[in-house]
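For anyone still unconvinced, we reproduce a single protein record, the chain in one-letter code, the fold tokenised, and leave readers to judge:
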Amino acid sequence: MEITGKIFEILPSQSGKSARGEWKKQEFIIETQEQFPRKICFANWNAKVDLNNVKKGTSVKVFFDIESREYNGKWFTDAKAWKMDLQGQEDSTVPDNISNVIEPDSFDNLTVTNQENSEEDLPF
């Protein structure tokens, strides 16, 4: 499954030991960009998703699995993230190969042509 939204919050990481060995978990919350936004908490187990360069407000696409388990008659559901792509990374640099740029000083040298007798001309 996948969902797109903005990072709402990144929670502190947790770690510990279990019968299967050491584990690390860091949760993060995204807010969807719909008419009625929803906040969803994802679990990032053993650093499968790199959250080091992600900041609050960053647009992301999260790939995840949903898993439910029963414990003492109660059910618990986790959304486990396994991949995250940054969305809408805007490059603020200007490419070197831009052509046909009109400098403000050259506006005086522009010639405006008008096709008379054109059917598309507006009457005003």
